[in-house]
Amino acid sequence: MNDILQVQGINSKGFGIIPKLVMQDKRLTTEAKAIYSYFCSYAGAGKTAFPSRSKIISDLGMGINRYYKHFELLKKYGYIKAEQEQFEQIANQSYYGKGLIIMLYTGLRVGELMALTWEHIDFEKCVLRVEQTATEYMDYEGDVPKISRSIGTPKTKASIRAIPLTPIVVELLEQLKVDYPISDEYIFGRLEGGHVRYLRFWECTNTIAKQMGIEGLHPHCMRHTFATRCLEKGINIKVIQELLGHSSIKMTVDMYTQTTDDMKKDSIMKLVSE
């Protein structure tokens, strides 16, 4: 998911390009005010013109951990709203959107989500077990093409894993079971039996992206966002590898090079910080 931010609720009050209200808020650190001022310099340029997280950190000369420490203050006091929060609010309003939120907090692949059954959820231990995956392929009935679906074991042993569930996901799953009793087997099933198609999650993602005015969003972005957030929170790379079901740490590091580079830079800068 793109790192796009919304600066809302302050400029509309008439406080100018660098709102006086923010500058006078004693709850905010100097760094938080600097970050907000940077955001305001891009306000009104359109979401597609807003800089990436990497550029923001580079321009401000901050390490990623330092940036997020002060960024969280701006979120806490309502000066900014992160894209992921807006995405979750919209997604939570639909059946398939709830599946996208589950991916955001577990790092599941789309096929793994589609193949998920209620037997794979241990509500008592708050654990989700990944033991199978769904695939779709083009088939034919005579000369008529059709999309066929199958359930099988994951390609690698590493993909067979247990993922601890946050209270957000547990609550969401409990809500799904009550509000959408569509299938006794698959969490995302069909009335006629079997699991739902990938197309349903793609259409849901596309609909949400249009509402938010962003481009290039697809279901697999949920998994990438999960991994990036884990890295930003300082979770051990070995743990992230196991949560994602990657067969090697190298695969995890190679996929998220930019984030790990930012974290290495921040770690080195701590050696010279006061």
Please characterize this protein's 3D structure.
The chain is of the alpha+beta class and 274 residues long. The chain has a domain at 5-83: Arc Repressor Mutant, subunit A. The chain contains 13 helices and 7 strands. A 3-stranded antiparallel sheet has the order 3-4-7, with no helix packed on it. Strands 1-2 form a two-stranded antiparallel ribbon. A two-stranded antiparallel ribbon has the order 5-6. The two termini are 34 Å apart.
Describe how the helices and strands are arranged:
Blueprint: E1 5-7, H1 20-23, H2 30-40, H3 53-60, H4 64-76, E2 80-82, H5 83-91, H6 95-106, H7 110-114, E3 121-122, E4 127-130, E5 133-141, E6 144-152, E7 161-164, H8 167-179, H9 198-212, H10 220-232, H11 237-244, H12 249-255, H13 257-269
Antiparallel strand pairs: 1-2, 3-4, 4-7, 5-6
Q: How many individual β-strands? A: 7
Order of helix and strand elements from N to C terminus: EHHHHEHHHEEEEEHHHHHH
CATH topology of the domain at 5-83: Arc Repressor Mutant, subunit A
Summed over residues and divided by their number, the pLDDT gives a mean of 82
Corresponding CATH architecture of the domain at 5-83: Orthogonal Bundle
The strand order across the widest sheet is 3-4-7
Catalogue the unreliable spans: 12-17, 45-49
CA distance, first residue to last residue:
34 Å
Radius of gyration: 21 Å
Helix content: 40-55%
Global geometry:
globular
- CATH top level label of the domain at 5-83: Mainly Alpha
- Counting helices, strands and paired strands, the structural category is alpha+beta
Largest sheet: 3 strands, antiparallel
The number of helical runs is: 13
Strand content: 5-15%
